[in-house]
Every structure is written in C-alpha cells, then in structure tokens.
C-alpha cells in the first residue's frame, strides 16, 4: 500500500511540475510561431529593417562589399545591432562597419565598399549612384 501511495504521489508531483506553457509551445501552430519569432527582434523602430536588408540582398551579389549607414552611428546605441543583423541577412557578402566598438569612424571601410546601404539616413556622395531604394533606405553603388 505504501508503494502505491508513493507512486501516485510521484506521478502527481511529476505532472504538477510540468509548466503548461511548455505543452502549449509544443502544440502551437509552427507557421504562426515562426512569423512571430522572426519579427520579434526587429519590433519597434527597426520593423522595416529586415525588408530593407532583403532588398539589398536582392540587388547585390555574393562577395560584394557593403558599407552600412543607419540612424544609430554609435556602436552600443544601435549600430552593433544593425551591423550584426545585416551580416546575418547578407550572408555571403562582406558587410563593412563604418564605426568600431569605440565609436571611431572607419573611413577606410567606406572607401573600400562597392555598395553603401543607407537605412533611415541620407547619404550624399557624388561618386555614388542609386541602385535601389525602398523600405526606408537606399542602396548606392560606387
């Protein structure tokens, strides 16, 4: 009798220990969950940024070097996010940062880039021509 009670208590504790959200997570509609998880990192002011990067990807080729200009041109105030996100979306291309971790401008990267992807900022340089614009940004080619 003691063994049966111990077994019943063990099973009850095991069932009560399972978090219901884990069960809902396992049974969730994966397509809807994918959409939500894909958009989550870019919520708020960055919402159009992935679509812009997809446009940049569509108008460049693997191996191209791309300098990145965004509203936040300080590493810890948003540039690092924009840079790493661009590196992910633009895999196969060389994404060149225009500032480093110490917020020092990297002018050599600007000069070395074949393209300049400017999102949320205006870039005026006579040696650059517009290749594509959309989703809050512009792609310029040297």
Could you explain how this protein is built, in words?
- With 142 residues, the protein is an alpha/beta fold.
- The chain has 2 domains: 2-40, no CATH class; 47-141.
- Helix content is 43%, strand content 17%.
- It has 6 helices and 5 strands; from the N terminus they run H-H-H-H-E-H-E-H-E-E-E.
- It has a 5-stranded mixed sheet.
- The protein is elongated and about 90 Å long.
- The chain starts with a helix and ends with a strand.
- The mean pLDDT is 89.
Short description:
The protein has 142 residues and is an alpha/beta fold. Helix content is 43%, strand content 17%. The chain has a five-stranded mixed β-sheet.
Keywords:
142 residues; elongated; 2 domains; 5-stranded mixed beta sheet; 6 helices; alpha/beta
Largest sheet: 5 strands, mixed
- The percent range for helix content is 40-55%
Round the Cα radius of gyration to an integer and report it.
Answer: 24 Å
Number of helices: 6
Unreliable residue runs: none
Q: Quick check: average pLDDT?
A: 89
How many separate domains make up the residues?
Answer: 2
The end-to-end span amounts to 83 Å
Order of adjacent strands in the largest pleated sheet: 2-1-3-5-4
Order of helices and strands: HHHHEHEHEEE
Beta-strand fraction estimate: 15-25%
* Overall spatial form: elongated
* Number of beta-strand segments: 5
Q: Structural class per helix/strand content?
A: alpha/beta
């Amino acid at each position: 009798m003691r063994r049966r009670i111990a077994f019943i208590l063990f099973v009850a504790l095991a069932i009560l220990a399972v978090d219901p959200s884990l069960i809902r997570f396992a049974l969730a509609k994966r397509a809807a969950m994918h959409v939500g998880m894909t958009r989550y990192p870019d919520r708020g002011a960055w919402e159009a940024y992935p679509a812009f990067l997809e446009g940049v990807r569509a108008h460049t080729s693997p191996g191209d070097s791309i300098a990145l200009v965004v509203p936040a041109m300080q590493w810890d105030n948003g540039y690092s996010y924009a840079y790493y996100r661009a590196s992910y979306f633009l895999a196969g291309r060389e994404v060149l940062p225009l500032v480093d971790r110490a917020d020092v401008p990297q002018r050599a990267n600007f000069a070395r880039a074949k393209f300049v992807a400017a999102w949320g900022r205006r870039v005026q340089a006579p040696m650059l021509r517009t290749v594509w614009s959309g989703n809050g940004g512009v792609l310029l080619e040297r």
